[in-house]
Amino acid sequence: MLPLTRTAFRCLILGSCLCAAAWAAEPLKVLYFTKSAGWEHSVVKRGEHGEPSHSERLLTALGAAHDIDFTFSKDGSLFSPEYLAQFDVVFFYTSGNLEMVGTDGNPPMSPAGKRALLGWVAGGGGFMAVHAGSDSFHTYERYDGNTPQDQRGYRYQNNGEASDPYVKMLGGEFINHGPQQEATAHIIDRTFPGFESLEAELTVHEEWYSLKEFSPINRVLMVLDTEGMKGSDYDRPDYPVAWAKPYGQGRVYYNAMGHREDVWDADYYQQMLVGALRWLGRRVDADLTPNLLEVAPESSVLPPPRS
Question: Which domains can be identified in the chain, with CATH numbers?
Answer without folding.
Answer: 6-295 (3.40.50.880)
